[in-house]
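Support case: adenosine-5'-diphosphate complex. Customer-provided input:
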Amino acid sequence: MQDGWIYRMIKTAPEKKGTKGKKYIYIICFLAFCVMVFAGIVYSVTSQTLKQQMGNKCLGIAYAVAALLEEDPDGYKAFIQSLDTESDYYIRTKAIIEKIRFGNLDNVVFLYSEIRVSEDEMMYLFDGEKADAETFSPPGTQEPLTAARRAAYESRGAHIGDFAAEVWGTLLSAYAPVFNRTTGEFLGIVGADVSIEHYNAVMQKQFTLILGSAMIMLLMCYSIIRLNREKTRSDEENFSKSSFLARMSHEMRTPLNAIIGLSEVELQNDLPQNMRVSLEKIYNSGSHLLGIINDLLDISKIESGTFELAPVNYSVANLIDDTVQFNSVRIGTKPVTLELSLDEKTPRGLYGDEMRIKQILNNLLSNAVKYTEKGKVTLELDWERNNGLIFTVRDTGIGIKKENLDKLFSEYYRVENRENRYIEGTGLGLSITKNLVELMGGTITVESEPGKGSAFTVKLRQGIVDETPIGSETVEKLRSFQFAERRSARGKKLVRTQMPHCKVLIVDDVPTNLDVAKGLLRPYGLVIDTAAGGREAVEKIREEKTRYDVVFMDHMMPEMDGIEATRVIRSEIGTEYARTVPIIALTANALRGSEEMFLSNGFDAFISKPIDIMQLDVALQRWLGNRHSGAEAAL
Ligand code: ADP
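Agent response - structure generated as follows:
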């Protein structure tokens, strides 16, 4: 199936190429530039702040030492004159400096006091080196002034600055002035040097961090732009693919409507056996092809991410009724019974995507029927407050081997064995089912035993609209399979209610479609009129020569399409009859969302082509139910 022409066509639907490549390169370059500038600013601000912090810490220490020296300005002065390392003053001050140095000075390499001896030179009084407590420079050592020192001497205030020296590496120095507290005389300065190596290590870390974050930011921007670009491109592709799919769907359904519809109409007549067999084959092949087209449309929409759920308020009883009606016919002449087991406490009205839940149940039930030759197929419905609806479809069929259970939900997977060799299938049903269940936030599980049967369980949380339990009466009614009996009165066929007083108008521009619709409606004994286009239908409704009880309106017609015709009927003719006559869209435009589109455009209901006779029957019962005579004809 993967290589089928329909699949290939959908996969290779026309693509639009993006034209924005260059623009994105410029954007990326600009962003890279911005990130670099940003990194630079952050680096320099951090560096300044860090230096300031370190400098302030050193300055605090220098001030503390200066304050100690200021306590004895005379001793300080006397020491400068003698520079005697044996003096009391020197020993006491050295001890204090040592104490401060070891107590507080993380990373401080040097702590010293000095005086200026000339325009360009200073002289050490005390000089403590962190590395070794005993390596105080001898008092009197002289050195040229650094710029920061010069500034400290000249301003007689605090100063911070860094300098590099071959021996000590790069240092950050902080200078505090020393004054005679009584006379205010400027005596000298105290310096504290911190190793810039530590600061460099911190900055290196910071820089790596900043650059790393900048790179991540850049990568993120790049990814966002790429994703955005991909999204724009895939939106464009999806748009063209969706419209392509809509066109293809319409084009394929129109001939299929003729194949399925006309064979269905002919099968209602008495036919020679060989002709009946051939027609049944045509009918079955057409229906099979329609199923494949529907599956491919669903898979393609799921893959392209354009699949949308359409939740509505719905009645649980109707959901079960429709599902049972639909599936009881599938059993045909097989010795298989379809049974129902319903939880009476299930709330009557729920909120969820009813149509897709039906599709899930139909997929599971049709598999159960398909893979069960005799025995029974059971649809169980349980309600749990926490889990919501729990459906189990159980069968007594061929079952599935343990090793194949995991692969069941993959696209195009079919178990290859003797038992199902002749059973037709694409291997898409369970994959679509799983996708649908997961899109609704639910789960699907399977248990099976070869030769004994299988059980597929689906859990779906639903909103509650009407909490009243469906109750035993409804459950009994549903279990009695009224409709199934009506259908089974004549095998694969439906028993039509006679409606001879009802008048219908069929609007379609394709004569074959008119033939199909007429043929399918004829067994109801209706009065049937036709119109070959929207304009003719509008005129017939305006003239009111016949008051139709229901109008079946095609969508795509030349000159005036079904939507425009309905708009004119509803809003321009102006009579009560035109405003209220039931108009049912009968169209090959069967993509998701079509029903909502028709209902919001003045239509009362929607039937897709190829016409499903059960859907048609339900619509006739609903719109003409109270007008007919009640007689029934088994055909
Ligand atoms: P298919 O169109 O082949 O039925 P599905 O995706 O619906 O595709 O199922 C995939 C495969 O899972 C089937 O080919 C069949 O082998 C197996 N399978 C599904 N349901 C049942 C079942 N109720 N009993 C036995 N086998 C089943």
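Residues 173 and 193 are 4 Å apart (CA to CA).

Case will auto-close in a few days if no follow-up is received.
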